[in-house]
Write a structure and sequence with these properties.
homodimer; 351 residues; alpha/beta; Urease, subunit C, domain 1; TIM Barrel; 2 domains; 6-stranded mixed β-sheet; 23% helix; globular; Metal-dep_hydrolase_composite (chains A, B); N-acetylglucosamine-6-phosphate deacetylase (chains A, B); GlcNAc_6-P_deAcase (chains A, B)
Chain lengths: 351, 351
């Protein structure tokens, strides 16, 4: 397969017009002398934090549902995603019908009650000292990432035991102080879940998780729906951190891609109005954001380059999750998306 | 007068060992081949926001007190400062015994009640449409700067009338929204008083004055006492804004340089304990910070270079106030300070 005369966007090599020859793997990339093009070729996207889409929810999806989940994500340009759990009794984790080629993002129960967001407080608990205790409920190989509040006494032991097993730790749903977060950072835990939602806010005498995320060299998940944080806030994060330290996620729930109405997120009732998902008390409860929209929003909010867009939508997440992807370069997997100049997805390959 | 073999620190030309010949004006600056030195020569400091020091208060100082005020400031390395008023009935402004070579910083009464800090709410009022209305109380030539909350309907007209008269506007004590601050910024009002104290905080769905100060190209006053904002916060501001957009101020009150005890700030009672000045309700009420300490703190908090220190302690304020100073360069005024390597002031010239 050869695609000619497209704008090739690579997160490291930049943007240039050329042609790409590929099968499963990219066989050749050639720069052309032309400067005009009709379409854009980008590395396919990765969504490390997604609860569900179009009626499917990670917690209850059948094997058949997970197949559809992948198909729906392919339409969004997403070749890899982490189906994400909500805070639940740990026994519930054993009921998840995870396909063998995906890994979970476990969001809770090891989070802070004060910053629970749309998680059921009844099931919140401190992390065990060792991740092996979770093996009672599911194989550790099913787990890609765990969101944990670093203020628990057991955090550091738990996080280190995860590291040994190749499970990423993401700090989140946390009321930690700056010093607590700094300590986690200095011990190598440098990722934060849906920044700055459900995190202790920036105060000028106690920077909290929000201030730590901005000041220290953390990588931050951002939900670029313009609802979880304002476009200006996204621009501020982009200004401070640069595209290298941002990972776009949808945090979408089963209502994504469906009409407004009533839905479940775990065992909590969610009401979606004008695409905004909330608990009855007004707490935001995940999003209805589609990845194909998230990339358009991010460009609109920040005026970033397409090279930077390739970082925040794919390359950074690939590095973070140790995935082979995110590049348009000879020898790399040909997980590719063709977009028009308005960033509408026209075609995807190899997923 | 010739000073030889010192580290010359200029905010634009940088740091180098050499000699400086000067009278009132710098006659010659020579780079030497040496790399060792005992002392540091810096442009003398400017403090655009200081209520008082050692028992002297701008609101009540006699002509004799103002002489002492200048002498005390000289010991701090400060060659120019703006004696700063507190929120008061406007008639009080006519009682200030300002010397002819200084100009006032009028802090209030045109501020927001919700962000009054240690200002007496009873006297807070919207700004008039035209600064000429203040001529009833004092000559406009007495005024260097006015801190104003931009959310007042009359803000823009007032601010423009100040601009025409060469009076600087600084946004402060404000509960404005991001959009309101952005509008002021776009109209050329790009300075913020004692950031982020007494300003609407950063929220991720409404950035407030704090978020606007960080996101837009504002110049920010910073009280680097480690109390008004934490050292980490100062480091965050330095990281985001750079030294070019920071102006150190003390915001000190008459208790500065004196023992703990009871003092007045305008007509409010202030209690100073361990050097921290507060109203009875715990609100911070100015500082007891000395400029000679502020520069040490800023270096400690941020690890900035001496070149950058020259920016935040003098050059930026000179540019901001249209003062001829802040450089060590032939032809510039010789307002100079000699410091040892621990930044203790050893000698000052020409003020």
């Amino acid at each position: 397969m050869i695609i000619e005369n497209v704008l090739i966007v690579d997160p490291l090599d930049g943007e240039y017009v050329g042609s790409v020859e590929f099968e499963d793997v990219i066989l050749d990339v050639k720069k052309s002398n032309k400067s005009t093009y009709d379409n854009i070729l980008m590395p396919a996207f990765v969504d490390p934090h997604i609860h569900g889409i179009k009626g499917i929810d990670t917690m209850t999806a059948s094997q058949e549902d997970f197949k559809k989940f992948k198909e729906f994500e392919a339409l969004e340009g997403v070749w890899y995603f982490q189906p994400t759990t909500v805070t639940c009794p740990l026994t519930k984790l054993s009921e998840i019908n995870l396909p063998s080629d995906l890994k979970l993002h476990i969001e809770g129960p090891f989070i802070a009650s004060k910053r629970k967001g749309a998680h059921n407080e009844a099931y919140i608990q401190p992390p065990p000292r060792d991740v092996h205790e979770l093996e009672r409920y599911l194989p550790l190989s099913y787990i890609g990432m765990i969101t944990v509040a670093p203020e628990y006494d057991t955090f550091m032991e738990f996080a280190r035991s995860c590291e040994v097993k190749g499970i990423r730790i993401s700090l989140g749903h946390s009321d930690a102080t700056f010093e607590q977060v700094k300590s986690a950072f200095e011990n190598g835990f440098k990722r934060i879940t849906h920044f700055p939602n459900a995190l202790s806010p920036l105060h000028h005498r106690e920077l909290g998780v929000t201030g730590a995320g901005l000041l220290l060299d953390f990588t931050l998940e951002i939900i670029a729906d313009g609802i979880h944080c304002s476009p200006d806030f996204v621009r501020l994060v982009y200004k401070i951190k640069g595209a290298q330290r941002i990972i776009l996620v949808t945090d979408s729930i089963s209502a994504a891609g469906l009409k407004d109405g009533s839905y479940m997120l775990g065992d909590l009732h969610v009401r979606v109005e004008n695409g905004i998902a909330k608990l009855h008390d007004g707490t935001l409860a995940g999003s209805t954001l589609r990845f194909s929209q998230a990339i358009k929003n991010f460009v609109k909010f920040t005026d970033c380059s397409l090279k930077e867009l390739a970082m925040v939508s794919s390359y950074n997440a690939c590095k973070d999750l140790n995935l082979n992807g995110g590049r348009i370069k000879k020898g790399h997997p040909a997980k590719l998306i063709l977009l028009d100049k308005d960033l509408n997805i026209k075609k995807v390959w190899n997923f």
